Amino acid sequence: MRRSPLLPAPQMLTSTASAAAAPNQHALSRANEQPEHSRVVGIEDQVDTLAGRLSPAVEGERYLKVFSVVGFGGVGKTTLAMEVCRRLEPEFPCQAFVSVSQAFEPSRDLKPLLRRVLEQIVKTKAENEKGIKEEGSLGDIDGLDADLLARKLAHKVKDMRYLIVLDDVWTVRTWESIQSVLPENNCNSRIIVTTRMETVAKVCSPASIVKGHFIHYMEPLKLEDSKKLFLSRAFGSVDASYPTEFNDVMDNILRKCGGLPLAIVSIASVLAGYKSSGSIDKWETICKSIVSQMESNPTLEGIRQIVTVSFNHLPHELKGCMMYLSIFPEDYEISKDRLLCRWITEGLVLEKQGLTQMEVAESYLDELLSRNMIKANRLDEHKRDQSYQVHDLLLEIMVSKSLEANFVSLKGGRYDGMSYDRIRRLSIHDSADVGAYSTSKVKVTVDHRGTEEVNLQHVRSLSMFQLQGHKLLDQLGDFSLLRVLDLEGCEGVTNKHVRYACQLHLLRFLSMKNTNISVVPPQIGNLEHLQTLDVRTTLLDHLPETVTKLERLERLKFSKRGLDIKWVLPRGLSKIKALRDVGLVRLGNDSQVAREVGELELLQTLDLHIGHETVDEEVLRQLALSLSKRYSLRCLSLVDISSAGKMLNFLHDLPAPPRLLRSLGISGGISRLPSWVGSLTYLVDFAMMGTYLVGDELLGVLCELPNLKTLRASWKSYREDELVARTNHTFPVLRDLWFGEGVLPKVLRFEEGCMAKLETLELRIRSHELETSIVGIEHLTNLKMITLKGDKDNPALYHRLSQLKDERDRRPKSNQFQVAVKYYL
Fold first, then answer.
1. Domain that holds residue 455
2. Residue 704: inside a domain, yes or no?
3. Under 8 Å CB-to-CB from 525, ≥6 apart: which residues?
4. What is the pLDDT of residue 26?
5. In order along the chain (825 residues), what is the average pLDDT of each group of 10 residues?
6. Where in this chain does the record put each Disease resistance protein winged helix domain (predicted)?
7. DSSP label at residue 205
8. What is the CB neighbour count within 10 angstroms for residue 259?
9. Model-level pTM?
């Protein structure tokens, strides 16, 4: 979920506990787990080999090298490439990792691929004196074609060593089209290509042309490594104890898996639910269901069989949620809030006593993650909403099952037609030929005058992944039974399509996020069943006041593209009794609206901007009362956008804090942190900006919070020359500490005993901060990664880098931390 552009967003973890109960302990335990530090099981030797070859160690060699990793699906190519990137981050600060679709078409896909590369390589930079976070130097690329994007990329990395991974390249044509736009900058840069095709690898890495190109052939895991991977997934650790009666059947399973990681992980994830000694019959049953002969002949079909076994052993409710993922294209990054809301809207989430549907949906997601059916992408530096992907082999299986059962109908891309007369869920994928999807081509009847092969009158769900849109959009008004309309990112959506959508009176989910719409008509208020309205990053200035008629609306997500937040919360807000999640919005000078916020009994997430105009004391007093009454709040972000920057002092006057907060962000001047912040037992994430704190006010209030995992201080959060993390600043579970630009004092000191669990430290260093001293790093005994960010020509950054490397080298090798540098471009 995109948060306030003024504030580095708190990570929105579980924000859906019911108003009558504390956040469920399962969610908190997951939040406080100490994850393994990007370590892999079973392929360490292969990581060492490839990382050693990629490392720019040969003096005088500056040309670009291409390394190919070959193996069929599920053998671990992507995992290997990701681990190599992590290992080499200090040597290659400019990195990008992009997936390449099997249906890659240069005329359609080259531009978005280049954009993804640029977005990962170019780092954002906060420069505005008010601390407003810019979107980076990419704001002008929307209208650029592939050639201009390639030039921009070449300019950005002209003096930088880069490492780019192209994951899952299928054809020589695809490689050649991508290669033609990647820069050769003579800086010892590297490209890694993963592919199932040896012919592709030999073209990507022709050893006879340039010395140093290399092809790595993935090897199946040895039996010993297979067992380590199995134990780590099934029992939680490679050294875990388990009933000895499992040994024989475990060895049999591992032989059938043929040393293939995806197969091992899939079966181990199923058996993780059967760890007791009385479960041997279940193990034997699953072993017998693996009919492939992969021990002697590992094949892609064998992996499919094993992954299918894993799917077949899912609980019934999870099978529907997994099959639903076939709606999304290959390699698509699915945001968490979008996925959960759609599951709920589609009726795939059961009701459970004492839990909200969102909590149940999150438990489904957690279960699929624990079974390795989906993977979580790494959160970026600004903690935007978590996203997920499905392994392409597993997606193939889900698509096959969904099409066979008429659970989902797909059109476009690799999918040429539909097999059933009646369809319920229609997903339009992208195509090189935008005009190929006319209604006549799809063989549909939308004017009620014919009985052709497919009738879209029965469609309940329409998802559009074709960027330029589809002629079906012009007939939206005819989809009278539509419940879900998801047009996120569709550039072809216009204001007329919004008007058509407002005629769909059964709609429950409407997303026009990241489109170019500029007007929502008053008729939006007629959608009496609407539960989710997502119009973030559009051209909208406001929403009509008729949104207050949407009494069943649970999630209202608004933001204008850029930083100008204009929509002021209207009177009548309290009529939306079901509202749980609202943002990004502004509170005007209206005490009635401030009071109505407190009447939203189910409100759990609020992202509110205050100011931009005069706000009376009475308005702030009413807001304080409202926040105190909202026991249900889980995530709160408050941003003072007034010129005076004094609005947030009202927080000291809260009669009682919302004690179940898990995420809190404060941006703006405040005399000190409210004392009640130190009593937020469930707080996991805290972010601040422009607070101008002094002394122990920054760390002293927060240091005893039992669940605080992430702390971020950005632009002018602190204003004294020395900041000390004292011995009594224990921070029991703090794992991530982040200091943005304009925060670092002249001395940052860590005393012995502070922050014992800290794993990652990120520092943004400006060129004039040469005298900044970091003292006591040796006391952070659990530290694993320090990331420095700044301009390339920044002497302060290089000075700090040298100091930290010296400190790292003084540690025992088993306890050394990594130091990575990321440059603004």
1. 408-482
2. no
3. 544, 546, 547, 548, 549, 550
4. 41
5. 37 34 42 43 86 73 88 87 88 89 87 89 44 43 82 87 93 94 89 93 78 84 90 87 88 86 88 85 83 58 81 92 95 93 96 90 93 78 71 88 92 68 87 36 33 67 87 87 96 95 97 96 98 96 96 95 82 96 92 96 94 85 96 94 83 93 93 92 94 88 95 88 92 94 84 94 77 86 88 78 85 84 72
6. 327-397
7. S
8. 22
9. 0.81
Report the amino acid identity of residue 93. P
One DSSP character per residue, 506-572 reads T--EEE-TTS------GGGGG-TT--EEEEEEES-S---GGGGG-TT--EEEEEESSS---PBPPTT
Q: Write the DSSP string, 445-464.
A: -SSSS---SBBGGG--EEEE
Domain identity same for 458 and 534: no
Q: Determine, yes or no, domain membership for 516.
A: yes
Last residue of a domain, one of 537, 561, 585: 561
Residue 692 within a domain: no
Domain end residue (candidates: 217, 236, 267)? 217
Instruction: Using alpha carbons, select from 490, 454, 337 the residue that is nearest to residue 12.
Output: 337
Indicate whether 430 and 505 sit together in one domain: no
Cis peptide before 569 (omega within 30 of 0): no
Specify the pLDDT at position 213.
82
Tokens of 797: 């950054």
CATH number for the domain including 508?
3.80.10.10
Lookup result for tokens 């066979």: 404
Query: Is the same domain home to 210 and 228?
Result: no
Co-location of 288 and 194 in the same domain: no
